[in-house]
Structures are given as C-alpha cells and as structure tokens.
Amino acid sequence: MCGTNPFPNRNIYHTFAILSKKVCKFFCLTVRLWCMLHARTDSLYLSKETSLKKQQAIPDNTDMIMDHPACMRKISQLIMVMKREVVPLTTALGRVTATDLTALLPQPAFRQSLRDGYLVASGIGEAGSDQIFPITGIIQAGNVTETVILPGQAIRIMTGAMVPKAGNRVIPQEECSKDNDMVRIPAHALGNLRTHIEEEGSEMAVGDLVVAAGTVLQPEHIGLLATTGLNEIEVFRRPRVGFFCTGSELVEIGSVPLPGQKISSNQHLLAGLVRRFGGEPRFLGTIHDTHAALAQTFAELRATECDLVISTGGMGPGKYDLIEQAFLEAGGEVIYNHLDLTPGKNSLCGLLGEKLFFGLPGPPTAVHALMNAVVGPALLQIQGVGTLYPMIISACLSQPITIRRPGIMQLRGGILSYSDGRCLVRMAGKHEPPSCYMVIAADRSSYKQDELIEVQLTATPFGPHFS
Ligand SMILES: Nc1nc2c(c(=O)[nH]1)N[C@H]1C(S)=C(S)[C@@H](COP(=O)(O)OP(=O)(O)OC[C@H]3O[C@@H](n4cnc5c(N)ncnc54)[C@H](O)[C@@H]3O)O[C@H]1N2
Ligand code: MOO
Predict the structure, then answer these.
(1) Would you state the pLDDT for residue 192?
(2) Domain MoaB/Mog spans what residues (predicted)?
C-alpha cells in the first residue's frame, strides 16, 4: 500500500490549509502595519477590541526596564476603557461621564427676577424725575402667573419669580419707598439700565454642553446636571480591582503577630487607595511565598471577575521572591519588570490574558508611591478619565534636601502648605501620609532651601487631601 493515498482529498485540503494560512498571515501583517501607523500614544479611549495594538505594545526584546514616562505611555496604550452603564444622577458622584451631557432644560427655564423689588412695564423712566406707582399685584417665586402689567403700574416681585412678558425691569426694594398700596421709585433707579431680569435660556440653551465625556463628577457637576433636567446619565463602570498580598510573615489584622510575623498593612492600604482612584477593591487573600501557593493564585486569577489585579511583595531578588516566575508560568506577558524609579524599582507590569497586572514590591511606602505614580493613573484611564491626575505643580522647598544615592529618579513624600502667597513643601515624616511626592531628578544630588521643585499631588479628583 506504500505510495497510495488512503485519503484522496487530503492534498487538496493540505494545499487549501497552506493557502489560507498565508492569506491569514498576510492579513495579520497588514493589520499590524496599519496599527503601527495609526498607533495613538495619547489615547485614553481604546476599546476592548484593540487587542492587536495591545500585542504590539509588548516589547519583543528582553530589556524590560522602563523609566516613569515610558511606563505611563505604555500603560496608556494598553488601557481598555470599561463598559458603560446608566446610573441615577443622585448616585453618580465620583463617577466618570461616558458621553457629553447636554442640557434638557434652558437655564433659566423661564424669564426670572434677580431681585426682590418692584416690577415696572416699559415706557417709564424717561421722565427724569421720581415716580409714584400703584402696586397692582404680587408675584412669589414658584407662582405660575398670568399677571398683566401695564405702563404706570408696579408689581411686587420676588427673586426667582417668573416675570410677565410686559415686565420691563425690576427695581430693588431697598431703592424704593412704599406707602400703603403705592410705591415711590426714584429717578436714578428708573434710569438705571440694569433690568435685574434674566431672560429664558440666557445662561444655557437646550442642547448646550453641560459636562464633557471623561469628567469625574464633582458635587458642582451633579447640581448643574440636576438643574438642566438630567436624572439618569451614562457613566463608565467602576473597575473591579483584585489584589493579594504575598509574604509568609504576614498575619491578618486582629491577630497578635508571633516573633518574625507582621500584620499585613498593605491589604488595608491598598483597599483604600483603590477606592480613592474609583476602583472597587476585591481582596483575593494573603499568599505564602511558595511556588505552589503562588501558582495556584495565578491559575485562579484568570477566572476571577476582575478588570485589573495588583499584588504586593515577592518582587525583590531574594530566594522567596517568586512573583515574576509565577506570573510567567501562568502565561503572563511582561511589559516591564523593573522601573527606573525609586521607591518602586522592583516592580512589574504585565498582561494576564486581558487583565492588566501590577506586581508591587512589599514595603508599604513603595506601595503608596507606586499607587499614586502608576496604578492610580491607570485606574483613572480605565474609567475613561480625560484629564489625568495626580496633577504636577511647582512648590518652594522649605528645607534643603540632600540625595544620598543620586542617579535614579526618586519620589520623596512631601507635605504641602501655603504661606505668604507661596506653595511650600517639606519632607514628610516617616509615618506621615504624604500630601504630594517631590520628583527628584536623577541628575540632582541636592536641592537648596527656597528652590522650586516639581511635586505630584497625591490628591485625586475623587477627594483632595491637603494637610
Ligand atoms: N539584595 C537586595 N535586596 C533588596 C533589594 C535589592 O535590590 N537587592 N531591593 C530592596 C527593595 S528596593 C525592595 S522594594 C524590596 C522588594 O521586596 P519584595 O517586593 O520582595 O517584598 P518583600 O521582601 O516581600 O517585603 C519587603 C518588606 O515589606 C514588608 N511587607 C511585605 N508585605 C507586606 C504587607 N502586606 N504589609 C506590611 N508589610 C509588608 C516585608 O515584611 C518586608 O519588610 O527588596 C529590597 N531588598
Ligand atoms: O523597589 Mo524598592 O520599592 O525601590 O523601594
């Protein structure tokens, strides 16, 4: 039977398979090339469909060290903005708008008085002398009035009340003198061109933009949107952020640590910081520094309903620092495994399937710095935030700083204050939550007192924290 073909159609299938493989390859290359040509490094609005771009963003080389700006750019490219949901406006504080929101009602919604006073009709005021008018009615805010006003009459009117068509101007009551049913209005008040009347739609017309897409809603926005007639709005879903803490020395809050053990503070620090940046924290457990425990954790992560995952600890060069190995074994793709930044140089960012993964180092100070400098901004972008925080400002150093080991960009916790018209910054104490991070340039070994230094605010649009 040697040489005879038991499957006569096989050659055709084979040829067809090779051909389709080539067509696919050509198509993939074309798409890839298109993506490269059209890659937008500044895009905050990449959709879930941008996986090709995502693949392209992963470096092919083995150099996984990144400086802070490069890491932020790379993360921006990988961000997949959350899906949208409709929520009542009353619950939307701190949420990010998914669409431009336009006015449903004009502002003001009717012609209104801006003063408590007397409304007069047109055709008066030219006399150049004081005039006395009979008071023919009263209009309170909220009245639906059909009141008619004629020249030579005055109507008592309140701030916010609807002004009848023929009403020409409101004279503030403190400028008038009332005597029973009559009011005397002085010539200068009658001659004043300010009408104290706000025309319907003069502040905002129906369809005017009230709040742009990508805005983190503050109390002021909620008030404005309510005024303009909106009661339900479309926002980006909050990202579910899974996090776990590694360390065989860690015990839970409430237990008395045995010698060598530590209470896991990162767990509670992270839960709060994730909320500060608009995420929903989901604690996934405290994990021992063993290969088996970490492998199991990473294996379970893929099925966990989280949009982003953070770990702490296990990032150093020690024998039991196994996060990167476990991440790779679970099929993770590394974006960087070392940052040109301290604290935080021992950290990793990568993709585990569709999920963005951040391996932060163990020390809580490093967790705080990286959450502010890297992970927090990523969380804001995932929620579709248009303008990124923390903001960078300049502050005046109220003390000199000496850098012991220059050569790497450093984030130093600082405390901001305001004095004599200047924004001042000093170094935060060891256990003092920083209100900013001073950005120490790699080439600086000292800063003088009164020198201006760049600082990144740790405040976010979700709640400013100034000391
Ligand atoms: N030989 C070297 N040693 C270290 C280097 C180095 O370059 N060469 N880098 C140092 C730096 S920088 C860092 S950062 C750490 C990285 O450490 P790990 O990410 O491996 O973290 P651990 O070793 O697990 O913990 C470090 C420290 O933090 C405490 N920790 C950890 N988790 C928690 C938690 N959930 N709550 C409270 N405290 C926690 C832990 O007990 C350790 O004290 O490596 C340096 N070493
Ligand atoms: O990686 Mo360490 O966090 O430089 O502090």
Answers:
(1) 85
(2) 242-381
